[in-house]
Amino acid sequence: MAAQLTSVIPRVVALTAILVLGSATISFAAQGQFATPATSNQVDVAPPKLVTVPDVRGQAYVFAKGTLEEGGFAWRVVGSVQGYPANTVASQTPAAGTRIIDTGMPTILLGLSQNGKYAQEGTPENVSPYVGTAVKFLRSKPVVNAKPAPKPKAAAKPKPAAKLKAKPAAKPKPKHAARPPAFAVAGAPAEPLDELTLPARARRLEGWIRAHPKTTNANVGHWLYQHEWIATGARFGWWHGAEALEILIRIDRQAQRQWELGKKSEVAARRALAAVRDKSK
Fold it and tell me: What structural domains does the chain harbor?
C-alpha cells in the first residue's frame, strides 16, 4: 500500500503544476488583451482658407462692384436705394476688415445712398451677375491646458544707439496723362486716373473673351461686369467713351457667336453710343 502511494504522489504533483501554469497563461493573455490601447480614428483637418472683406464704403457703386469682384466676392443691394452706378455705398455687411471663410464667392450686403445730382435712369443692378455663396465666420476654439505665463526675464542691457542712415529721397509718382471728359454730367464721378482708360479696358476685354470660349458663370459674370463699367463710364462722359463703346459692340457680337448670348448687351451698348455721340456734339 505504501509503495502504491509513493508511485502516485509524483503524478499528482506533476498534474497540479500543469494546471497552475495553464491558469497563469490564460490570465496573462486576458490581461494583455484588455490592456491593449484603443487605436485613435481621429484625422487632422486642415484649417479653412480665410479672406478679408474689403472696405467699399464711400465708393461709387460702379467702383465698389469692381473692388468686390477683384477680391472674389459677390454682392447684393439691401435697403430702399437701388443699385444705380453713381449711388454711393453707405454701409456694408460684414464690416470692412472682417476675416471670413472662403466659401467661393461670399456675398457682401451693400446699403446705398442716392446721388441726387445723377438721374436714376435705366435698370438698376442690385445683385452681382454671378451667384454668390454664404458668409461663414470662423468660430474660435477654447484653449485647453493653457501653459502658465513665462516668468519675466531680467532686463537686457541697453545696446548703444545705432547710427541712423539717411533715407533715400522718395521717387516721384508718375503723372497720369490728362483725360479731358467728352462732356459733363452733373453728379457723375470723375474718371479714376489709376484705372485703365475705357478704350484700353475694352481692347483688353476683347482679347480676354476670345481666350475664354466656354460659357461658365465666372466668364459671363466677368464679361457683364466689364461691359457695365465701360458703358457706364462712357455715359459719365469719360475720355474716349464713344471709341470704347464701338469696341464693346464688337465684343457683344463675339459673345453671341461663341456663347449664344449678348443681344441685350449689344442693344444697351448701341443706346449708350447714341447718347454719348449726342452729348458730345
Answer: 50-137 (3.30.10.20), 198-279 (no CATH)
